[in-house]
Specification:
heterodimer, A: alpha+beta, six-stranded mixed β-sheet, globular, B: five-stranded mixed β-sheet, 7 helices, binds zinc ion, cytoplasm (chain A), mRNA binding (chain A)
């Protein structure tokens, strides 16, 4: 018997559901753009060029310095955070928890939680706690960017912030963000 | 074909007998030998296999509510695009040029010139009435699954009219039906 072929992981767009490379042919490319800039910048390099490159770099530099200091104090600057979706996001260096509700065929939806590991939270443990707290399924999966994330079944975005800050006091509320309509919104 | 496919088009949904399940499995293994090592994962012998009969003589092979394969009448089984994306090398491939992509997205059949132009690619071994993956110029993943109306050689030689029927394409009804309730 031949060797087991490895399943290819396709980057599907979080907005329209097509493989990211086909968003440009999909029905709502404009709506896909913020998502693509964040998760698939290599697929559409022109999108990054469209938004003013220099401006973007400046914003993300500021963001990094902000988040380093945000660890101790809670004086984050949400107005700068809001500008990020238009530009390049350097996720690797930023300590943030990102919560996103993803709708899967009509009514079913899952809430994804990214970035807890940056606060020294063990994801498998967090996944168990979330599943228990919200009486639902929760699992650690590889996200579209190959980073691990927690998928929780159901729409729990509303209650999750309090649960995170209560359970893991090291995670400041100011470091938690929602993705809403492709935009990043601070939870605080 | 799948353009307006919704769950309302489902006319019958049956868990098939073990003998039928075995036959379906076997014909899939014969059609796609590259898939054989993972067939037990995809169609576990112990999980019930459901065949959903839809309009236009379309049958879906469904495991755990996920459509994995389809066929028309008694024709060869073809993977859904989501499955093909995971195992892209199980099918023979044609490639359409970039200009043809938007037409395929609208459900149009694939015209010969879209395959013979500089952006197109033909696998010369493909005969008439065979399943084929439709790739696209500049794209990594399959755009559609088609059934040839001409052999690859004739597509090249005749170079007009419909070369491949577009059976299943990105954003059609089957694509959107990630799971079947
Ligand atoms: Zn998209």
């Amino acid at each position: 018997m031949a060797e087991k072929p490895e399943a290819v992981k396709v980057l599907y767009c979080g907005v329209c559901g097509l493989p990211a490379e086909y968003c440009e042919f999909g029905p709502e490319f404009e709506k896909c753009k913020p998502w693509l800039i964040q998760y698939a910048p290599d697929v559409y390099p022109d999108l990054l060029k469209d938004s003013d490159g220099k401006e973007v770099d400046k914003v993300s530099d500021q963001m990094q310095s902000t988040s380093i200091s945000a660890g101790g104090s809670s004086t984050s600057k949400p107005e700068e955070v809001k500008r990020l979706p238009g530009g390049k996001v350097k996720k690797k260096d930023k300590k943030e928890v990102i919560i996103e509700k993803v709708v899967r065929n009509k009514r079913k939806c899952i809430t994804t939680v990214k970035g807890l590991e940056l606060f020294a939270v063990k994801l498998s443990d967090a996944s168990k706690k979330l599943g228990k707290k919200f009486a639902t399924g929760a699992s650690v999966v590889k996200g579209p960017t190959e980073k691990e994330q927690i998928d929780v079944q159901g729409d729990i975005a509303y209650d999750i912030v309090e649960f995170i800050t209560d359970t893991w006091p090291d995670v400041p509320e100011s470091s938690i963000f929602f993705i809403e309509d492709g935009k990043k919104v601070p939870a605080a | 074909m799948f353009i307006r496919f919704t769950s309302e088009d489902v006319s019958a949904q049956n868990q098939v007998k073990a003998s039928v399940q075995r036959r379906i499995r076997q014909s899939i293994a014969e059609e796609y030998p590259g898939l054989e090592p993972v067939l037990e994962d995809l169609l576990p012998k112990k999980s019930p296999l459901v065949v959903v009969k839809c309009q236009n003589h379309l049958n879906l092979v469904v495991v755990n509510n996920v459509p994995l394969f389809f066929n028309i009448r008694d024709g060869p089984y073809m993977p859904t695009l989501r499955l093909l994306h995971q195992y892209p090398n199980i099918m023979k491939k044609f490639q359409v040029d970039r200009g043809a992509i938007k037409f395929v997205f609208s459900g149009a059949n694939i015209m010969c010139p879209g395959l013979t132009s500089p952006g197109g690619v033909l696998d010369e071994e493909v005969e008439i009435e065979r399943p084929v993956a439709i790739m696209a110029e500049g794209k990594q993943h399959a755009l559609a699954i088609g059934f040839t109306k001409m052999s690859a050689k004739n597509i090249k030689a005749i170079n007009k009219g419909i070369g491949v029927d577009n059976l299943h394409y990105l954003n059609d009804g089957l694509w959107k039906m990630e799971t079947l309730d």
